[in-house]
Amino acid sequence: MRAVKRSRTDASKRDAISTPPPSDISSQSEVPTSEPISDTNSTSNVSHPSPPESLASSPMRLRDSPRLVDTVSKGTSMVQSYLALNVPNLQKTCPDCNMSYRSHLPLDRQVHAKHHDRAVNGRDWQDSWGKEVGSFSIQVAKGASQVVAVLEIDPLKKTEVRVGDELLHLANVELNAPQDSGFWKLQKTPSLSKPLLARGKVYVCVLRAKVIGLVSFETSFPETKSTGRWMILRTGQVIPNQEFPILVGISRIFVMKKYRRNQIAAKMLRLIQAHSIYGIAMIKRQQIAFSQPSSSGGQLAKKFNGVLHKKSGEWLVPVYLEY
């Protein structure tokens, strides 16, 4: 009899050892709280811990307890739990560069620091980039002036195009403007295998190997058939049925914060008058229009080519619809 009992005991142990684990526990990893957790196969005195008082200090790991999985019945509906943390909203918007970021995340702080430095102090520029268009002087200190070079980004060079995209992104973030259509890059059409000429240009102002300002503008208006319109500066309302031909449309014009109040934007506009279209010595101011001018851009347009409406006393600035 002792031998028989020993063999039965050994057989039961072998059966318990040879029982394979569940093939897939991903669908059974959650335990419903409506049924008590019990271990019907265990004969030893195992004391189960009571539920933790704090979820943060006692995390539950179901994958370390395979016996808990066996108690889930097939017909039991599973409930997804979510961890809710009482974390305040730490998103900030920088008053200088207008970038929104989460100050409690190191990566966000790093991205903002890089963007902030470029938007305030300017982006690095290499001497081999761009084609010089002209230059002008600004005062950087009392009684001291320095020459600012104005260069045109070459749409055939990928590095310069990438830098142009970065600079326009800086401007769009601060101006709360959408991304442009890329009119200043080389365009392709389904009917032509070779790229067409760009429909516009990007000028950058460089001082001591830093870009301190930029302007992007369209010039192919005979193709797009875009026309200028008058906008009331005070209200932003466009006057209907008052259209006129234009040669240049200012899409973005931006100066880094450290170098503002030096008439840089106005000087860039004067260079556009003289160098934007081949064969035209000087474009008239009334042939230049602005796309969605901001409050500061509206004041720039008012000084550059605004018109005072005598009957109403309203200031009108030329605008156009950007394609």
Walk me through the structure.
The chain is about 25% helix and about 25% strand. It is of the alpha+beta class and about 325 residues long. It has two domains: about 85-120, no CATH class; about 120-320, Gcn5-related N-acetyltransferase (GNAT) (Aminopeptidase, 3-Layer(aba) Sandwich). Strands 3, 4, 5, 8, 9, 12 and 13 form a seven-stranded mixed β-sheet that branches. It is globular and about 80 Å long. Mean pLDDT is about 75; it is low at about 1-70. This is N-acetyltransferase ECO1. GO terms for molecular function: protein-lysine-acetyltransferase activity; zinc ion binding.
Short précis:
26% of the residues lie in helices and 26% in strands.
Beta-strand portion reads: 25-35%
**Order of helix and strand elements from N to C terminus:** HHEEHEEEHEEEEHEEEHEHEE
SS content category: alpha+beta
How far the N terminus sits from the C terminus, by CA atoms, comes to 97 Å
Mind telling me the CATH superfamily name of the largest domain? Answer: Gcn5-related N-acetyltransferase (GNAT)
What's the β-strand tally?
15
Tell me, rounded to a whole number, the average pLDDT: 77
Radius of gyration: 34 Å
Q: What can be said about the biggest beta sheet?
A: 7 strands, mixed
